[in-house]
Structure to design on (217 residues):
């Protein structure tokens, strides 16, 4: 049986500001926590190596942003720092049509004394297609909440594994473009109430959400 996401996987909304999405490892006022609506097919990410790992973090980050901004909107650059210096590969997220493919064409370009080596870092096939959804804002007095949710989200894919909490429901949606279809229903009305819809697990994101991971790249 599928379970709800752990805290480590959770992208949670701020209780004080619903316009922002909380990403573990980022301060709430970090601009990368802004909730952006985007088509998942336009999100790309790549590995970039080749820089001197003893360089200052900000210097490498700035160089990568300058290099890859021609491919689309650079939404996040994650470079892990270790006791010995920077990790040997950075992870860069870019938003735009064909962004990752454009970035790969830049591999080998000189970047102020070092050559950028750009390699693919594709999202797993299930991400964006099998997602856990959280919905709030509905009328909690409805007698058949699950039935109403199934009907409201029926166009998004196969729906299963409902779990209810106080004023909140979680369920799994699986299907082609499930994430895009579900997020399109954020702000929609059901029974005269405005729904707040979030993908809390399995999402394709424009930021590196697993900053807490001990894995080194």
């Amino acid at each position: 049986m599928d379970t709800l996401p752990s805290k480590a996987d959770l992208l949670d909304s701020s209780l004080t500001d619903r316009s922002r999405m909380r990403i573990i490892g980022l301060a709430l006022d970090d601009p990368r926590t802004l909730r952006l609506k985007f088509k998942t097919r336009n999100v790309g990410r790549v590995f970039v190596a080749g820089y001197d790992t003893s360089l200052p973090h900000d210097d490498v980050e700035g160089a990568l942003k300058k290099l890859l901004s021609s491919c689309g909107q650079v939404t996040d650059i994650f470079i892990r720092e270790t006791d010995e210096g920077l990790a040997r590969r950075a992870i860069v997220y870019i938003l735009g049509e064909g962004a990752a493919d454009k970035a790969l064409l830049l591999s080998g370009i000189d970047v102020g004394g070092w050559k950028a080596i750009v390699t693919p870092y594709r999202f797993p096939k299930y991400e964006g297609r099998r997602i856990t959804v959280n919905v709030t804002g509905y009328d909690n007095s409805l007698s058949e909440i699950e039935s109403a949710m199934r009907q409201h989200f029926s166009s998004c894919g196969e729906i299963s594994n409902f779990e209810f909490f106080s004023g909140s429901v979680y369920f799994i949606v699986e299907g082609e473009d499930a994430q895009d279809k579900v997020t399109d229903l954020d702000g929609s009305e059901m029974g005269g109430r405005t729904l707040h819809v979030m993908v809390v697990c399995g999402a394709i994101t424009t930021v590196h959400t697993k900053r807490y991971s001990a894995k080194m790249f």
Observations:
- Residues 1-22, 212-217 have pLDDT under 50 and may be disordered.
- The longest strand covers residues 158-165.
- Residues 141 and 167 are 10 Å apart (CA to CA).
- The two ends are 32 Å apart (CA to CA).
